[in-house]
Amino acid sequence: MISLSPQAIPPNKIPPYPTYQLIEAKGGETTYDLDMGRIERASPRDAAPGELLRSPDLKYTLNWEENLRYRALVIANAKDNPTYIAMQTELCRSSVLYFINTYVWTYDPRRQYHRRIPFVTFPIQDQAVEWVLDHIAGDKSGLLEKSRDVGASWIAAAIAVWLVLFHGEMVPYFMSMTENEVDKGPNNADVGALLSKCRYVLENIPVWMRGGWTRGGQGCDVKMTITIPETRSIINGILSRGTAGRSGRATVVFADEFAFVEDSESVLKALGDLANCKLYLSTANGMGNAFYRIQADPSTSKLRMHWRDHPLKNEDWAKRRIADPEVTEEAWASEQEIDYTGSTPGRVYPKFISTPIIDVPWTHAQTGGYFEHDPHYDTYTGQDYGQADETFIAYAQIKPPMPEYHMFTDFMVVFFDEDEGTGTTVDEWRFILNQKGYRYHEHVGDQRTGHQSDSLGSNWIKNFRRPITGPVFSMKFKSQINPGPPIIVAGRYNSEFGPIQVVQRLLQTPGALAINSERCPKTLAAFQNWSYPTQENPITGLSEAVPGSKPLHNQYSHPMKAVAYLLDWKFGKEQTYGTGARDADFDYPAAKLKMR
Question: What is residue 387's predicted lDDT score, i.e. its pLDDT?
């Protein structure tokens, strides 16, 4: 799919445009290797004949000379030649790839020289262009997950310009979080914003191809709107507010960095009637957003643009980039690896590993028989009680470690089951726990909430242990239930700081902590996503945890507290409170601490 025109020139009749070449050394040129002594830098050396040359950032180097000659020849032939201009116009209308590779330029301010770059597409970019056009032609939505710096935003800008130049009454929309991300206006030369990229594309094509558009021209170029007078087509920008897109109609909506949009589910609903074709483009930003939910749906049409698909990048480039001090594990997971489990900024437990990683000996998310309930071992529960929100119970067993991890630990805590509910009574929870058929060794729970008095002067802890004779009626189960024997809940009043340290210590011990990822999906998601409030670092531009803040109280905090109560009770030490200790929303102040 390279055209929308029913009268398009057949693809085999489109002239072949020269593409890029990776530069091979003739011998003696300067190339760069990863400095194994200091991995954050590259070392120069003389290149051997035939090897691919690399720049100081360890990317391979490009040769665009043939493409540049072709572009110059086309521009020269078009001068004062209406017939040739008409032919070129029809070729561009018939192939968006011909238009991009012959006429479109991009801009990279990071380059020391030659910041204006011919847009010569790589294979993955060709695939992305055809994928986008297929969705526009078919009036269908899709999701494009990407690493940073693979050209996705420039592809969207080039396609939008192609639509409005060569087709009548097209209305592509660009959406992002802020005005500076969508459009800085025609008087701003910065090309970072989405519509600014469109202006750059328009300004660097021949005047005869611009359809009457001029930068800042009256009636054709204002902030958030670019109009092509000859085709009456418009590029619009909108902000991702909860009401975004409730009025107006679009040919296609490019929702840029949608994983970072605030209140993304509301924005998703607001976009419903704006266009039939909505394309969500983003790097990863954890699992707590609509972008992750959409990509996890098997029915979603998806395309992935990973850094390994970029012909200039390689493993040495990645190693050197990761070694940069401003690149955190979360930033790398988000910006390069398209890793939803590791990309939540400000994670409380960044050492939690969901999938196998080279040179890392242990993965915490596990499946298989050893990570199921084993009747030969006792069961422990960690309990977080909800008053107005969820109650969460995590079930664990303490087993010998797998043989290959004996050198690291003499035990393994396996979380193999979980339960969550809102509005479930203590008697109903007692029934659920006793019906499991597990042999319980100990129940550990939230002592602060557990001792809060209810309207009858009782509390969770008392109600769990009180004698019950005979069945009681359950609204949840719509029947009589027998709550079963009393449940004695242990635990300590503690600060937030201590339990988090205990969990972190176990996470850093290979083989000591495992989550059954199939049986405990909410616990798994909580480890992956529980985070501190974040703010943007003004120097690096990356999201970082707000210093001194507490973890967010959200859907992930309940499983995490249940896990932390249990692990701290079993493996924590008596805490010393002073410098660095922080009271949390589920803790008593230090003066009220009761030690085990």
Answer: 66
Q: Residues near 11 by Cβ (< 8 Å), separated by ≥ 6?
A: 2, 95
> Are 532 and 545 within 8 A, CB to CB?
yes
Structure tokens at 261: 């949009």
Same domain for 386 and 285, yes or no, is: no
| Domain end among 263, 289, 309 | 309
CA 416 – CA 546 distance, rounded (Å):
33
- Tokens 């969460």, located at residue: 392
The whole domain housing 278 covers: 11-20+64-309
Q: Are residues 419 and 553 part of one domain?
A: yes
Please check whether residue 371 lies inside any domain of the structure: yes
Instruction: Select from 363, 361, 348, 335 the least CA-distant residue to 527.
Output: 348
CB 503 within 8 A of CB 564: yes
Distance CA(245)–CA(70), nearest Å, equals: 41
Predicted local confidence at residue 542, as pLDDT: 65
Kindly report which listed range (137-146, 552-561, 583-592) carries the lowest average pLDDT score. Answer: 583-592
Strands 302-305 and 142-146: parallel
Band the pLDDT of 455: cuts 50, 70, 90.
low
Looking at the domain assignment, is residue 305 inside a domain?
yes
The domain tally of the chain equals: 2
Least confident of 8-17, 69-78, 384-393, 584-593: 584-593
Of 263, 294, 309, the one marking the end of a domain is 309
Q: Can you read off the two tokens belonging to residue 114?
A: 């030659």
Q: Which residues contact residue 398 at a Cβ distance below 8 angstroms, ignoring those fewer than 6 apart?
A: 377, 378, 380, 411, 412, 413, 414, 570
290 and 370 assigned to the same domain: no
CA-to-CA distance for 169 and 148, rounded, in angstroms?
32
The confidence score (pLDDT) of residue 114 equals 78
For the segment 41-63, the average pLDDT, to the nearest whole number, is 93
- What is the pLDDT, as a whole number, of residue 450? 86
CATH number for the domain including 131? Answer: 3.40.50.300
Q: What does the alpha-carbon distance between residue 469 and residue 307 come to, in Å, rounded to a whole number? A: 64
Stretch 42-56: mean pLDDT? 94
The overall average pLDDT reported for the chain is: 88
Q: How far apart are CA 243 and CA 261, in angstroms?
A: 13
How sure is the predictor about 388, in pLDDT bands with cuts at 50, 70 and 90? low
109 alpha-carbon distance from chain centroid: 25
Residue 1 lies in a domain: no
